[in-house]
Structure formats: structure tokens, C-alpha cells
Structure prediction request, 56 residues.
Amino acid sequence: MKNRGFAMTRAYQVLNEMDSQYPERFATNARNLLNGEQIAIGRVVVPEKQKRFWLL
Prediction:
């Protein structure tokens, strides 16, 4: 895939802007997945569904 761009550098920059611990955690989890080890999941937040009152 010669035309496919590499966007991981920018992705890690965005993760760092969100939380400075994210890039290290994502890299560690990726390494652990490849090695068949356990990964750290952390807290899962499910966004609430927006109610559309105009569609009543």
C-alpha cells in the first residue's frame, strides 16, 4: 500500500493533548496485545444518547 499515509504520529499527538498518560498506555497495550499478555482497560464511559424532542 504505497499511497497509504502514516498517521500514527499525529494520533499520538492528539492522545497527548487529551491526556499525557494516553500515548504511553496505548503503546503498552499494543505491545501487550502482540505478546498475548493482559491489557489495562481502565474506566469505560458510555456517552448518553441525545434525545430528539423535535421528532415526537
